Amino acid sequence: MDWLSPLFTSLLVVALYLSPLFLLTGIAIYTKRLLSKNRTSPLGADLLRPAGYSLQKTIDDLQSDLMGVFIAIPMMSSSVPLIFLAQEKLSDKQLGWGTWLFAVCTVVAVVGYQIYKSVGIVKRLAILRLGLACEMAVGQELEQIIRPENHPYRIFHDLQFDGFNVDHLVVSPNGVFVIETKGRSKQVVDGKKQARVRLENDTLHFPGHFEKKPLEQVRMNVRTVKRWLADATGFDVPVAGVLVLPGWYVERKQRAMDPYVLSAKELPTQLPRLSAGALELGQVKAVSYQVEQRVRNVDRERV
Question: Is 117 helix (H, G, I), strand (E, B) or coil?
Answer without folding.
Answer: helix
